[in-house]
Predict the 3D structure of the following.
Amino acid sequence: MSKFTDASALGAGFVPLRLADRSLAIRAAAVALGIVFLTLASWTQVPMYPVPMTLQTFAVLAVGALYGARMGALTIVAWLAIALVGAPVLSEFKFGPAVFVGPTAGYLVGFAIAGFIVGRLAELGWTRNVATSLATMVVGEIIIMGLGTAWLAHLIGVEKAVQFGFAPFVIGDTLKIGLAAIGATGLSHVFGRK
């Protein structure tokens, strides 16, 4: 196996917060804090051109990298479930079943999958340096944007999906990928010390 896929070369699973080793109470608190973080990031708008940017995608990537595959995906799915049952925790304070069949449904599904994949890559040590951390975040972003744009294309056609659901977000998402990669690498070094 290569040094990028052999988890034993990196130790038995590495995630900065090491939640798998914590008590049920600590894990539950981490999920709750993760939901709050995802919610606040979703509500936070940063003025950008051509569309305002939220920190929602950044938070999804960060939760995956910091919590690991299972806990990251669990936290993201719990956050989405809260939105489904009526809490306005998504961007623009959206909520309810309609959000999960509307234009943003593909992105929402992508969040959970990306959180799991980014978390798994973090467990394999891919967030220990900036280059592989950046690759990890790009993989997560491709999952989110790929599923989101594909679902949107199903609803409005490929050309309009790329025009309205992909292209306007390239600049902002590139910045979020870089921020998530640097943050995950830094936290890997801080929490990775024994």
Notes: The radius of gyration is 16 Å.
